[in-house]
Design brief:
Number of helices: 5
Number of domains: 1
Shape: globular
Distance between the termini: 15 Å
Largest sheet: none
CATH class: Mainly Alpha
Number of strands: 0
Length: 66
């Protein structure tokens, strides 16, 4: 879901990593839903991608249930 939102605004992984002030490797793991980001990074992601509460819940649930 994060990857789809990123693609919808035509941002690359590099641009998102820069926007969130994290490494490309760290962002790639977020994009692939392999890691739940730290709270501060998640907040930036929510704000930047304008994620709804429902989308956030689905994202977190999918990662936790892997």
């Amino acid at each position: 879901m994060i990857k789809e939102k990123r693609n919808s605004i035509k941002y690359t992984q590099v641009q998102m990593a820069d926007q969130l002030n994290i490494s490309l490797r760290q962002y790639a793991r977020i994009d692939k839903e392999e890691d739940l980001p730290r709270r501060d990074i998640l907040k930036k992601l929510i704000d930047f991608l304008n994620l709804s509460n429902e989308e956030i819940g689905i994202y977190i649930r999918d990662i936790v249930n892997k």
